[in-house]
Structure to design on (448 residues):
């Protein structure tokens, strides 16, 4: 690996040539672009069709936190009205400011006018918007495989050319990626985007080590593509000690390439605070964020004001340190569940399956040792209900819809007893598949 030399100087990567044709057809929202001006001293606004808060029936919202004797009370005088009213398409300004300061602290990036954050109704919405901003239907896209089906679904629906970026037990493989891009036909446009889940990948639970991220960042500059860093499980990392946790692409890009703005980062509150609040965060170069906000203005106006004000009140109560302490507790909670499932798999599935113990996230990725020609889609479809076991077959995570002997098992909600019983039932499924296979070729063998 070549030495890293870009420690101080950095240039801002300009993503505007990457903008899609379709996003340029959208005009900024005529109403919402004026809303920030309403707060100017002496301004009388006749702009927005906002309802008068006097008709809202809510007087206050009280939040009682686990492990705290102090409630958080939102009243009409201290933020509740903002949470009940229309807001800005990029998110509550105070929440966005808190998030920008948090990103600076966690990822060591410098505060500048070249990047910003915006809030969306979950990171899934922000991912979809970003693809709309940077690509047009049919464009080639590099996608980490096995892949998150939530992204594969909307890309396949618009006939994208999905170029599989292979992974192994250490996550995204830069050597395979380099080979694929080096052999790219000269008469075809290269992919502009690489989509990856670098920490506790969904579905594999694998994490990309820092040295690989460095190589992938170099490839991004060499082959001129941007990295969509979907890091929903970043704070559910089971690696012990800060020195064992890989820094993010966002944190590394300045040091590695001497530039900023080639990485667009997605964070989610779903795995640590609340999935139902539907709050995601995009951190990226200003031209991209502005265009994502422009789409929001035109499509669904804004993220939820109510859940944003709840999150802001919680974050102000916690501070950065308190939020990180909460995430550490959540990580410890899931680490114990991971260890239980790992022990259950070791007891029941040894010699029947292979797996890597996940370093982060909520999933085990198991490869069942099935008879020739068998796959988990057929096995779970035919026998899963009979054995009382639900899991997602590997085909769901393959952009080319190929059948596999793999499945994804989530350990987040099941009890210790259920983990052992699930692995026992999975073992019976494998044994049954072999029994059926033997009966095809050995006359007289009867199923017991």
């Amino acid at each position: 690996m070549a030495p890293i030399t870009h420690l101080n100087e950095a240039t801002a990567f300009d993503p505007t040539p990457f903008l899609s044709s379709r996003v340029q057809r959208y005009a900024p929202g005529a109403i919402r672009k004026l809303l920030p001006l309403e707060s100017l001293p002496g301004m009388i606004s006749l702009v927005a069709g906002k309802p008068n808060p006097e008709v809202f029936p809510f007087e206050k919202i009280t939040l009682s936190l686990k492990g705290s004797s102090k409630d958080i009370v939102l009243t009409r005088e201290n933020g509740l009205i903002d949470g009940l009213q229309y807001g800005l398409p990029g998110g509550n300004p105070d929440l966005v400011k808190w998030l920008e300061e948090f990103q600076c602290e966690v990822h060591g990036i410098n505060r500048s006018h070249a990047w910003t954050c915006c809030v969306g109704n979950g990171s899934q919405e922000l991912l979809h918007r970003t693809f709309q901003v940077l690509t047009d239907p049919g464009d080639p896209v590099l996608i980490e495989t096995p892949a998150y089906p939530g992204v594969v679904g909307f890309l396949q629906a618009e006939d994208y050319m999905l170029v599989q970026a292979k992974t192994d037990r250490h996550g995204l493989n830069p050597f395979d990626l380099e080979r694929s891009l080096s052999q790219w036909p000269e008469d075809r446009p290269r992919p502009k985007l690489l989509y990856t889940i670098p920490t506790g990948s969904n579905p594999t639970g694998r994490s990309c080590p820092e040295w690989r991220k460095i190589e992938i960042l170099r490839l991004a500059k060499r082959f001129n593509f941007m990295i969509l860093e979907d890091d929903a499980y970043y704070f559910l990392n089971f690696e012990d000690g800060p020195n064992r946790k890989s820094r993010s692409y966002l944190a590394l890009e300045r040091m590695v390439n001497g530039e900023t703005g080639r990485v667009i980062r997605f964070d989610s509150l779903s795995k640590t605070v609340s999935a139902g609040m539907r709050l995601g965060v995009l951190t990226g170069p200003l031209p991209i964020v502005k265009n994502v906000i422009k789409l929001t203005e035109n499509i669904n106006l804004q993220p939820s004001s109510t859940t944003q004000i709840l999150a802001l009140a919680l974050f102000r109560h916690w501070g950065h340190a308190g939020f990180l302490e909460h995430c550490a507790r959540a990580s410890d909670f899931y680490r114990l569940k991971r260890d239980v499932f790992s022990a259950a798999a070791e007891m029941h599935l040894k010699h029947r399956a292979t797996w890597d113990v996940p370093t982060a996230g909520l999933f085990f990725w198991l490869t069942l040792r099935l008879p020739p020609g068998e796959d988990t889609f057929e096995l779970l479809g035919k026998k899963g209900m009979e054995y009382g076991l639900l899991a997602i077959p590997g085909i769901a995570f393959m952009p080319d819809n190929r059948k596999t002997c793999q499945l994804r098992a989530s350990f987040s909600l099941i009890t210790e007893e259920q983990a052992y019983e699930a692995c026992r039932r999975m073992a019976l499924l494998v044994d049954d598949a072999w029994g059926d296979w033997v009966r095809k070729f050995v006359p007289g063998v009867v199923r017991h």
User: Anything to note?
Assistant: The CA atoms of residues 209 and 244 lie 9 Å apart. The chain is about 40% helix and 15% strand.
